Amino acid sequence: MWVWPSQLRRHDIIGMNRRNIRYIGRYNKRRLYPLVDDKLKTKLLAEAHGITTPPLIGTVSTQFEVKRLHDLIAGHGGFVIKPAKGSGGKGILVIEAVEGDQFLKPSGARLGLEDLHRHVSNILSGLYSLGGTPDVAMIEGLIQFDQTLAKYTYEGVPDVRVIVFRGYPVMAMIRLSTAVSDGKANLHQGAVGVGLDIATGCAVRGVQFDRSRRDHPDTGHELSSLRISDWNSLLELAAGCYEMTGLGYLGTDMVIDRTHGPMLLELNARPGLAIQMANGEGLRGRLELVEKQSDRLSVKERVAFAQRHFARQGELQASTGTALARS
């Protein structure tokens, strides 16, 4: 069943054209894009602003340096190799454990050192980068995510996406990895998206492949009881990325580490719109309300405003969710 544009407007759904012209084009200066398009630059900028990120083990920037990889990862029981300029979760290789000369992925698949060399070489050649430009491989420490989320995810680290507009957190979701997504928290690859109430961090609605979902396809655990711990700290971290980057419309991706709490993974100057389906509600009304507010408030004041005005409880009816998902 398809829906008319008028029905989408009633649900405040925005499309790519409105996002690109009204919000990204107006509030994101192009000269600032490199700060978020390059994950290494984002990490260094975050460290300069006192924002916690996963520890950087090292980088590989030339083919000659690939042979140094073994020395970089020596002594680390797990790590992540990712392209600095990658997008959509492409090129991210998670190694959960090391057994002798074997490197284990979350799925249990075993790789050798030559496989890691090949993957890093592909990153450097630009296989996963925006526009196919030469890239840098980053090696980060493995995140030990909050175990209260373990029953909601499968073989991967769940991450929280928050859309921040003019410094206000306006909408959030958590992305849960699945067997289909190969342990990656990427909705296009089959991860489950769960909309989160801005006021409490509690689950609002779940989707997978743009269709409503009430439980995790692999663990079988229901999603309605999901709640993010240290929620206010996470929202304040997300909101603070406005001052850090100067970008008015951005997506912040974060994880909850069991020791360090909320940590920033990366930023996106062109965040996708699937978050609307995960929440069963559009962004338009929230964005228009924020446009009327001052951007000179403190981080805590902006977060408090969002929690007062964008609170949600419960899950939408399945029929509404299906209509939105197919639109």
TrEMBL record:
Xref: Gene3D superfamilies: ATP-grasp fold, B domain
Protein name: Alpha-L-glutamate ligase-like protein
A biological process term (GO) from this entry: SOS response
Ranges where the ATP-grasp domain occurs: 43-298
InterPro entries (alphabetical): ATP-grasp (IPR011761), RimK-rel_E_lig (IPR011758), RimK-rel_E_lig_ATP-grasp (IPR039523)
Taxonomic lineage of the native organism: Bacteria, Pseudomonadati, Pseudomonadota, Gammaproteobacteria, Oceanospirillales
PANTHER family in UniProt: BETA-CITRYLGLUTAMATE SYNTHASE B-RELATED (PTHR21621:SF0), RIBOSOMAL PROTEIN S6 MODIFICATION PROTEIN (PTHR21621)
Keywords, in A-Z order: ATP-binding, Ligase, Manganese, Nucleotide-binding
Cellular component, GO annotation: cytoplasm
Domain of life: Bacteria
SUPFAM superfamilies: Glutathione synthetase ATP-binding domain-like
GO molecular function, one term: metal ion binding
